[in-house]
Every structure is written in structure tokens, then in C-alpha cells.
Fold this protein.
Amino acid sequence: MQIIAKGKQCIARVKLDSSNTQLLSGLPGFHRWINRDMLFSPTGANINYIAKHWPDAEWNSEAKIFLDDYIETIEQATRNRTFETPPIDDFAFETKPFEHQRKAFYMSRDKENFALLMEQGTGKTKIIIDNAAYLYGKGKINCLVVIAPNGVHRNWLNNEIPAHMPKWCPIDFIYYYSGMNKTHTKKFNDVIASKEILKVFSFNVEAFVSKVAMKYLENILLSHDCLLVVDESSRIKTPGTHRTKVITKLGKLAKYKRILTGTPVTKGAEDVFAQFKFLDPYILGYDSFYTFRARYCVMREFDNRKWIVGYQNVDELTNSIKGHSYRVLKKDCLDLPEKIYQRAYVELSKEQRQIYNSIKNEYVAQLGDDEITVPETITRILRLQQVVCGWFPSENEVKPINKTNLRLKALLDIISEIDAKIIIWARFRADIMAIRAALGDSAVVYYGDVSSDDRVIAVDRFQQDPKIKYFIGQPQSGGIGLTLTAAEYAIYYSNSFDLETRLQSEDRCHRIGTTKNITYIDMEANKTVDGRIIKALRNKKSVADIVNEDPRSMFLEIDDE
């Protein structure tokens, strides 16, 4: 076999018999026939495949560059996996890194594209700040851009950068928000125009519905040598969304790129594609999600739709990303205190039980209808969850079922026995308002309607002010990127249906800085959807996964709990 370079692609030329034809057609990455030659992308997966099946292949001088780069990547990855203590050079850390942070820093610092797949609470942010200072000191970048969830993007500037950025590194930083006033806009533009410093910009990931935000980021990337970071990159894991497409397109303008996530995979291999495509499509070897899915996902057709029912070639996929990522779990690198899980059982009022059973029975009767979709089923579970929280769901609003909410009363009984700071996670805005009214000035709130400024204040007060005992938050809004290590308890008044959201929210208080055991209490109304939701999440599944498998189980088998 001969391998000939053709620009950024390669051509495989071999005697075409049935065996060679079949083998070449099995290349895992991008490939297509051109007459009797095979054009392919020189990705790690493809090169490894060819080296395995044609070990004596002749690579011309240009193509051998790709082969040598691949060999070096594998050797480097091997070295990175085997040494325990990276060598110390003259880089001056502002804050001393943990051993796993130092290893991640040395693995990633010179890479154009890299993924920090580190569990929540292991200190990913510090590594990026050190990386940015290092690249600035080497003259490689003059700008750091962070895209993060709402509230978290401010935390980078207010807390993380001041804490970890080396004092020898001159910086100016500012955040972007939709509808910036004239004063903030002027300051933003002044930072863009400033010279001979490291400029730091943070964007809320939700801002990219706005063409203004897109234009600002595009101008920054075009006019600077940037390190572009997507924090909590699972927010761009869905290939077809507008947000993912925009950020991926803009990412092509960045000199260096990083993704940060503790949960790169929540459903399966399909979650990896868009995140690594943002870094570089050549890492995985696929530009098309559907081609990628065909290689790594097992598909079956149900109800005229294709569904993922399993996975294949997982080792191959793992090897593709090894040289471009670092994965670590808290249990492997931190001596953190134990997580303790408990349940607190709640009674339903007579009226609640009647309403619950009536709605449930109606839904169960309709489950045999083939037209009832997965999203509709999940919506119905949500309605039942509202009932067990004390609310009667209607078209435009929810109304209290009873004057006295037994769930709220049970919560107050629980916290009255706890002499420590507590996070209270509640899914519904009505619950948050009711809990806040009951707890008064001893509580702060953090949910979708709270402004970015007030979110920052809420976190700071909970962490620093001894008078603030309670942090009341929506896991969908506050479960990502926050440090709430002042808490010793986290109570789930009502759960999100999404596994990633649950894991993220748990780790707000179980991370670097935690010194005491953390107790997680799930409130559960007996013989209701509460039990099934909790069971799914503790079994590391989202509710949608259970509904896909067997929607009836959410309703019919609940009494067995």
C-alpha cells in the first residue's frame, strides 16, 4: 500500500481485491472512494486503522508527517499517563496547584486544542487561568475569552481570576451582557483597544441568541490571539442547536481552544461529538454527526424514528480523544469527605391524593395511545410533580391545593433540626417563593429571574455572611459552576429530571474546599412519581431514559417502592 498526502487529506493506493476493498471501506473516520483510490482524513483513528491492517504501508514524505505526528501524540499520551509528578519549570503559580491540577496544566499548556474532562469540584478553572498566563508569558496569546452559563461567567471575573491569576501577569477584564448601557459598552470597547496586557472577556452562553454578542465575539477573535474557553461544554453537546452552531463557527477563529466539563457524557457516545468538533473535527475524524453516529451508536427504528439503543467501537473512540484530553474524578485525586444520602418522606393531604390519583389515572388510560410522545409523557410527570409539591396545575398558572402546604411544613421541620448552612434545591418558581417567604432574611435565592448581579451577591452572602443560613436555588439555574462549600446539607425539595443537572447541583458543595461530610436529603411523597424520579437519578439515569425504556413504569409500578 502507498499513502500519499493530498493537502490536509491522504490517498490510500492499493491493489484492489475483495479483501482490501472491504478493509478500506471500514475506515472509522471520514473517507470516500475517488476512482480506485481511497481519500481519507489522517485522524488518529484512521491512521491507527491503516497501521494495524497494512503495517508495511509506504508513506510518502508529506504523508509521513501525519504518521509521525500521530506516533508522537500516542507516545506523549503514554508518557502523560505514566508519570506521577510533572517536571517543575520556572512558571510561577499564584496559588499552589494540587498534583492533579499540575499534571493537567503540563499536559495541556502548549496544546492548541484540549479538553479538561474533570469532575465538578476538582479545580478546572484554576488550570485554565494558569494556562492563559503561561501562554501570555510566552507571547502566544493576548486575550482570554470565557463562555460560561449565566452567573458562572461573572464568577470567573469576580472570584476565580483575582484568586488564581499570577500577579506578574498584567490583566484587564470585563463581562458581556445583553443590553449593555453606554458606560459598560465604552469600558468593554476600551478593554478591547487596550495594549500590552492580557485581556479577559466573559460571555454568558445564553447571550448567543443575540447577533450583537456574536458580533462582539467575532471582532475580539479576529483582532486578537485568543484562548477561547467553553466552560460547562455540555451546553454545546447538541449538534443541531443554534447555540452550538454559532459557538463552533466562531471557535474556528480562535488560536487556542479549551472545553471544560465534569460530565462529557450523560447519555452516551453521541454527547462527545459536538464538544470535540468545537475543538477540532480532526480529533474524532468526523464532520458529520450522522456519520459519527453510524460508527459509534447502535440504531433501531421505532415508530418511524431512529433511536440509539447501544454503543459500539467505544475503545476506538476513547483512543481518539486520549491525546487531547485529561480525565479525573474526585475520588482519584481529592481526599474529600463522604457524601451521605437520605430520604425524608412527606404525606399528601386528602385533596392532594385525590387530585394526584385522578390525573395519574387519566394519563395511564392514555398510555396505550401510540400518539403519546416521550416529551408529552415527561410533561405529564411534571404535572404530577407539581401536585405532590402542593400545586394544582392549570393552563396559565399553578394554584395552591391547600392553605397549608404539608411539603413546606415538612421542610421547615427538617431544617429546624439542623445547625448548619443548607442548600435547598426546588424546581418550581412557586416553591422558591413560598420557601423564601417562610425563611425570610436568613435566606438568599438563585433562579432564572434573578439578575446576574444579584446572583453574585447571593452566592457571596451565603458563603461569607453567618446570618445567611439558606441558599434556595433552582438546580437548572444554580446547579452549574457555583462554589457553595459553606453548606453541609443539600435538600432536594423537588428534583430536576436531568441526571447532569442533579450531579452538577450535588457538586456545588462537594468540591475543593469542602472539609465536612455532605448530607443530601431527597424529599419524597410516598407512592408518587417522587420515588421513581429519585430512583432514576440515583441509578445514574435521566427520567427521559426511563420513559424511553418503559413509560408505563413511571406511573404503574410506583406503588412497589
In short: Confidence is low (pLDDT under 50) at residues 78-88, 557-561. The longest strand covers residues 339-346. The chain is about 45% helix and 20% strand.
